[in-house]
Amino acid sequence: MSTPKQLNQEQNRILSIDFFRGLVMFILVSGIATLFNGLADQGKGGSLIAILNQHSNHGAWFDIYFWDLIQPFFMFIVGVAMPFSLSKRLARGDSWKKSFYHALTRSFWLLVLGFMLGATDKTYFLTNILPQLSFVYIIAFLLIQIDVKWQLLVSFAMIIISDLLYHFWPAEGFNMPYTPDHNFGSWFDMATVGHLHPYHWVTFNAIPTCAHIIWGVIAGKMLMKDWSHKKKFLIMFIIGVLGVGIGYAMEPFIPMIERTSTSSFVIFAGGWCFVAMAFSYLLIDVMNFKKFAKFFAIVGMNPIFIYLFVMLGGRQLLTRMARPFTYRLFSWGGDILINMVTITVVAAMVWYISYFLYKRKIFIKL
């Protein structure tokens, strides 16, 4: 799959992947976004804080903000890392069959953990990022060694099939493609789990968002090629700009809806994935800002663990530990200052847990 020269170059390039993944994970789990929410709720910070708060939350049904790109970013960066990981396995003598078995095992545990996070006594949802990742990961793995043109064909086929189902599904009451709880994705959830998500997310959006992890695989294989830095950056950047532009151009005809992953949203978000990867590559591998990258890369080296830790109440536990100190030390500044300091301290604690594992070479993987 790759030459020895390419495998040697891999070690110099993997940091930009860990940086991108770590940055996304840190934004997701640190709680820093709640700083803007607290300030905006109290009318502090003016229009700038209001904009930052807006982009630190999912948009309404037809609105797209920065936070709506977090899941596509995560799916994409998992795909970018996959060719590197498979190359390592094949280089050390693992067969494709053994590698595929590992991928199946990983997907199984992602599904189990995602089910656990999305379940209550009476309901369960598979809209969490982990069960969706368990599905798209296997699809991407099966495609990883085929030609790019076939990978692109499959990715766009899944987007088009999804759009067609939303537009032409005949079930009465579920044939309105752009209406919450009355679309094909809602019908699919009613047919499979028997209830709808309270915020209108649908399980079926794992199908069109397969494109993000497949496009990540394509970007990863591109990074492994013996091309110049400039060529790699420009290709990723140009693809990204085209994706963003095409997504915008489609929007008047097919609205961008993240909760159902319409084709316009998938292409738009995929464009931003390429742009973000291009600038991560430029910053880390070309301009050599490796010390800056390492801060976030440390979080990116244990992404599943840190995500589960936070989702299972770890951040609330850390907040309870920090609050008595921040309250007594900063009570003179009022609740806003106390909350800001507490959130910052807890984010630092989350990072230090990742650093603790990193220093001891503990990498928890599925």
Describe this structure in words.
The protein is mainly α and 366 residues long. It has one domain (4-359). The protein contains 15 helices and no strands. The longest helix is centred in the first third of the chain and has 26 residues, at 4-29. The chain is globular. The relative contact order is 0.15. The model is unreliable at 1-13 (pLDDT under 50).
Cα separation of the termini = 23 Å
**Tally of strands:** 0
Kindly provide the radius of gyration, computed on alpha-carbon positions and rounded to a whole number of angstroms: 21 Å
- The overall pLDDT, averaged over residues, is 87
**Number of DSSP helices?**
15
Please report which band the strand proportion falls in: under 5%, 5-15%, 15-25%, 25-35%, 35-45% or over 45%: under 5%
N-to-C SSE series? HHHHHHHHHHHHHHH
The class by helix and strand makeup works out as mainly alpha
Globular, elongated, flat, extended or rod-shaped: what is the shape?
globular
The tally of structural domains comes to 1
Helix percentage range: over 70%
For the biggest sheet, the summary is:
none
What low-confidence regions span 5 or more consecutive residues with pLDDT below 50? 1-13
